Amino acid sequence: MLVLIEFPVTIDLFGKTFLLHPFMEGLGMFIGMRYYQLLKWKDEESLGHTNSLLIVIAAGLGALIGSHIIGSLERPAELLNATHKLTYIWVNNTIIGGLAGGLVAVEGMKKIMGKKESTGD
Hints:
The chain contains 5 helices and 2 strands; from the N terminus they run ββααααα. The protein is mostly helical. The protein is flat and about 50 Å long.
């Protein structure tokens, strides 16, 4: 039996309809961050818990910014012709930009902290 799914997938909560993807994405980030913190609190390392958390935050923000910047640069003509540039940048993203942005942010944070050892990023 073939079951068809209509996209975008939505869920109804509290009388309102929500897109499932952003909900699950946020839930995954929340659970992943809590699990990371649990593992880090158990681990004795040279960086310290605060520095590790700052590196993770830098990675997340770098990935967010990098994915949108690189995504919007894929089609420069559309970017230049967009009436709302910030909206155009926000709705375009790429995985490569996220990976590159996260890496640059982690290395920048390590430089600010004066750390040279591997952080497992």
